Amino acid sequence: MDKKRCKWCLSSDKMIHYHDTYWGVPVHDDQELFAKLILDMNQAGLSWSTILNKMETFYEAYDQFNICKIASYDKEKEEELRQNPGIIRNKLKIAAAINNAQIVLDIQKEFGSFNAYIWSFTKGKVLQHKITDESQVPVTNGVAEAMSKDMKKRGMKFVGPTIIYAYLQAIGVINDHAEYCFRNKELQ
């Protein structure tokens, strides 16, 4: 018997695999939290499948999303990234990744970890939304708006509330798997 899944993932095997394996699973590793932030930031104006199809190259191009390495990228490395057809070559998004890595280092000093900072917005709890129909999924909420505002205040770029809401879904802070989806109960 086929498993029932969120409808958004049914467009390709890659999307189904991402949905079944990664989307909505709580993440607590600083490097992976940072990687997902940069990937969601790069999705702005694009489809998730575009990012998913480039994900392996993103990890290679951005040194496995090593926060310290990215924070120290120079103009030469920025140019190298702008020439890489395997990633999103938007000049502003590349500069934002470097800028945001530098700010994540500051956050780690202040909070002890990026994980502690991210999860502080929900006091370490996963927000369980009751989604019976995918049209009910909001594009943002109060938590995403508060995090976006704080990140912007710290100087981060490409962290608007809609991007941050998608990020929070991806890293499992918000469980927006539809109630009929087999992953919803697995992630409660």
From TrEMBL:
UniProt key word Hydrolase: yes
MF terms (GO), sorted A to Z: DNA-3-methyladenine glycosylase activity
Keywords: Glycosidase, Hydrolase
Native source organism of the sequence: Lactococcus muris
EC number: 3.2.2.20
Record flagged with keyword Hydrolase: yes
Class in the EC hierarchy, top level: hydrolase
Protein name: DNA-3-methyladenine glycosylase I
InterPro entries xref list: Adenine_glyco (IPR005019), DNA-3mA_glycosylase (IPR052891), DNA_glycosylase (IPR011257)
